[in-house]
Amino acid sequence: MSGTGLRERKKERTRDALVRAALELFVAAGYERTTVDEIAEAVGVSQRTFFRYFAGKEDAAFFVTRLAESHYIRALRERPPGEAPLEALRQAVLGSWDTIGEAIEQVVPVELHLRAYKMIEATPALLAAHLRRQEGLEEEIAGIVAEREGLDVDADPRPRLLVALFGGVMRVTQRTWSVGEECSIEAIRELTARHLDQLGPALTGNWRPV
After folding, report:
1. pLDDT, tens digit, for every residue of 71-93?
2. Gyration radius (Cα) of the chain, Å
3. How many CB atoms lie within 10 A of CB 2?
4. Which contacts of 16-22 are long-range, i.e. CB under 8 A and separated by 24 or more positions?
5. For labeling, which of 5, 149, 163, 185 is most exposed (least CB within 10 Å)?
6. Quick one: CA dihedral 48, 53, 55, 56, positive or negative?
7. What is the pLDDT of residues 123-159, one digit of tens each?
8. Region label for 142, one of left (φ > 0), alpha (ψ between -120 and 50) or beta (otherwise)
């Protein structure tokens, strides 16, 4: 491996160590009560080094979440071109849950990521930031759907409408999972599939008991 490659790998190891220390401290002590100095100290680096990798605590808190989102975007882009839009969204997200564990494990243990995700849902400042970030993610997904269907996303409302609907299902899933007892990828995948199965009946069915 070249000197440049070794330096880059060392940077990645430092970055991943900072992410792991940050998530462990956030989960154990709470996001608001954890300082950048404590994160840096846990890794044995300076505060200045921390800021070489992250703009702040929030940036570190969402690092693995961004990784998972990128994994989903790739999965969506790889869906067969003839697949219906909603089915492509569904298969991409379920397929992502099947394969995301290995990608996450390269940075932090999956269980730590899942516990940190529950922490984000329970921390008002992080939840607000997460919802703002989701808006940008949904816009990107709508653009991909429009491109797959040969549509102009600004002229045809269907991609944004579909993604907004799909995003709503995902928000309900995340909220339900975050307050539950199960903390596993299998549990959130099963819940995602179950909620997506309810989408059609919820939109077109009669909810009143016969």
Report:
1. 999 999 999 998 999 999 999 99
2. 19
3. 7
4. 16/106, 16/107, 16/108, 17/43, 18/43, 18/45, 18/50, 18/53, 18/54, 18/60, 19/60, 19/63, 19/64, 19/107, 19/108, 20/107, 20/108, 20/112, 22/57, 22/60, 22/61
5. 5
6. negative
7. 999 999 999 999 999 999 999 999 999 999 999 999 9
8. alpha
